[in-house]
């Protein structure tokens, strides 16, 4: 076997690596989503919630949550032999927003996780990506205790553009998360192609 080539004589595939952000409100399931799909042990920067943080951390609806991401979550998933996604989960609280610009640099697109019990918590993330023209999809995390709504109802509630995909998902299930990530890649590719055409015409 020739060094650097496979047994069939074809050169090894150099995968394309893409960066995807996973954003949304506090306690919406970002860390769970990254962990469910990552093929490596996810890097997590979680700290225990303390009494000192209660005045600034709104735990309404997620009273059972005892930790919070203070920097980022990181994971990796290979969608195809030639396509690898790096996942960066953003912190959910307002006081960590200064980290977002660094995490968003070079991102192909983003998943904005939404919880129908606290839909307003994802408004800030939607606004962030819209203002920076970063393509995103809404992943509605279907919690067992939350009311389930059709995607179009969620779209209207968030006042989204018609071309923004809204995908129902379970952040605990690998296959469900993969569907969301595929939707992000497809939407980002279409978004980029459309904007490139707009610039050249």
UniProtKB/TrEMBL annotation:
CDD domains: Ras_like_GTPase. Transmembrane segments: none annotated. It holds the Pfam family ATP_bind_1. SUPFAM superfamilies: P-loop containing nucleoside triphosphate hydrolases. InterPro entries: Gliding_Motility_GTPase (IPR052705), Gpn (IPR004130), P-loop_NTPase (IPR027417). It comes from the Bacteria. Keywords: GTP-binding, Hydrolase, Nucleotide-binding. Belongs to the GPN-loop GTPase family. This is ATP/GTP-binding protein. It comes from Streptomyces ossamyceticus.
């Amino acid at each position: 076997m020739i060094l650097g080539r496979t047994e069939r004589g074809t050169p090894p595939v150099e995968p394309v690596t893409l960066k995807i952000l996973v954003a949304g409100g506090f306690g919406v399931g970002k860390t769970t989503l990254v962990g469910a799909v990552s093929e490596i042990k996810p890097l997590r920067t979680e700290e225990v919630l303390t009494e000192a943080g209660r005045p600034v951390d709104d735990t309404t609806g997620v009273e059972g949550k005892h930790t919070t991401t203070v920097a980022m979550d990181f994971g990796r998933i290979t969608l195809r032999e030639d396509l690898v996604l790096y996942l960066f989960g953003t912190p959910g609280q307002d006081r960590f927003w200064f980290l977002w610009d660094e995490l968003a640099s070079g991102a192909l697109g983003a998943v904005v996780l939404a919880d129908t019990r606290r839909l307003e918590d994802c408004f800030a993330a939607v606004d962030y990506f819209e203002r920076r023209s970063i393509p995103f999809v809404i992943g509605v995390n279907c919690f067992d205790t939350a009311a389930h709504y059709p995607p179009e109802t969620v779209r209207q509630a968030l006042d989204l553009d018609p071309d923004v995909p809204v995908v129902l998902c379970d952040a605990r299930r690998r296959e469900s998360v993969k569907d969301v990530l595929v939707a992000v890649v497809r939407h980002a590719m279409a978004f980029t192609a459309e904007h490139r055409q707009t610039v050249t015409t």
